[in-house]
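Archive transcription. Copying these from loose printouts into the bound notebook so they stop getting lost. Printout 1 of 2:
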Amino acid sequence: MSNNFADRLITLIEEKKNPSVVGLDPAIESLPASIIEKYKLPAHGKENIFQAAAEAVLEFNKAIIDSVCDIVPAVKLQAAYYEELGAEGIAAFKETASYAKAKGIITIGDVKRNDIGNTCKAYSNAYLGKAEIFGTKVQVFDFDAVTINSYLGREGVEPFLEDCSAYGKGVFILVKTSNPGSEEFQGLTTDKGKNYFVMGQLVAEWGRGLKGKSGYNCIGAVVGATYPQEAAILRQSMRETLFLVPGYGAQGGSADDIADCFNADGLGALVNSSRGIIFAYKKHKDEKNYSRYAREASLVMKEDISKALIKKGIYRW
């Protein structure tokens, strides 16, 4: 298989006929009651509440991964839900990613990191490349891709670009995010156009030279499902860029809203759903079968996207 991130992702999307990603955002208060009861103190028998919580998260994540790994090409881990559990949560973050990779699916670390100089390089070393410790280069988290914020310009992106090239990794850069408040800055008009559009053109430029045999490059863009008109504008000028599309489902974005994130070939976008998948059991009030309902929700999402693309005249699968 190609070492280019975009090629690996496109291959899995085509093999599974599914351009969706499951977001592993395991908010502790939303975990099934059986898991909470199993691990909460003092029932768990440990004094470290962070360790107990991290173990609960890990059990939940592994069950979700087991239930969807044959039907989805990727999972996305939102770092915040792990960081709030301290060092033990970070360990669960790393182990979850390793477990997903062992199941043959792409891992995306939703970390939104950014800085300049050596600090930025350290972030990239941690998540994509290798850290040099006592003269030895070692992998730390080893995600296939991460999300980054490029507010600091090319200096805050360059180390990630270098590691994408060296290690066959990918990045998704914030361009038009799904939250309502994104309009406060991303929607402002400059002499070059809207800020989100300007950022999109920079992302396309940064990706040149990192294109794989699939026709897509490994420098992608985060483009929210809740802004379909903006997504359509971006797609017109970013044909070779992969879009990571949050906002589908729980945040209000529909399958019709994300259709314009795809190219005419039916590729180019990876649509994320987090709460709508991993906590689907809540709709059925059957927490014992939470992983089964996650799988069912994933299949419904797959079909939903397929129907939206067909409606648009795209017959990929």
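Printout 2 of 2:
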Amino acid sequence: MADGLTALQDRLQHFFSDPGLLVRAVTHRSYAADHNERLEFLGDSVLNLAVSSLLHERLDSLPEGDLSKVRASLVKQEPLYQLALRLGLPDVLRLGEGEVRTNGRQKPSILADALEAVIGAVYLDAGYPAAEQLVLRLFNDVELDPALVSASKDAKTELQEWLQARKLKLPLYRVVGTLGAAHRQTFDVECEVVDLHLSERGIGGSRRAGEQAAAAAMLQALKARGS
């Protein structure tokens, strides 16, 4: 574990004055009471500020509303998950046995949260300038394109607009099952497009997340059939 954290600091290009901060940043709540959720909360704010500054500088022709949409497309779960993979965070995550058994090291939500926690840890260790430089390095190879405005729509909004453009009825969502304890339920949600006799399902950690996953699956199915 120590070797893995040393290698991670090499990749971060930041060596911690307080190594305990990094240990906490890669500790999931399933592993210990001293976990990374408070660091994640802090890192989320630092990330948003740093990305906002980057976009303000690079996309100087975009209005405020479009800048917000581009930022949303960059700091959502999937891009952060990909950045976490590139950093090798799965190799150093501290997870409880249950999460290990369910392949928690590859779960996008856990990895995205851990990345934000690492950013928060760097902020506490060395201040905002160091954390901002980390964010700039992370996004150095990410193309900052105004076209990301359209990509920032969530799946439910995109599906609704797709159906409305074709004068079709809006989709229906229903929870078809739940798994897990009450405080950590997983929702299995079905999305149905009645006019097309199609239904798809998605799973998420909340009803809303399940609906988004089901809508994304429906969009993928519609694109696959060339509708």
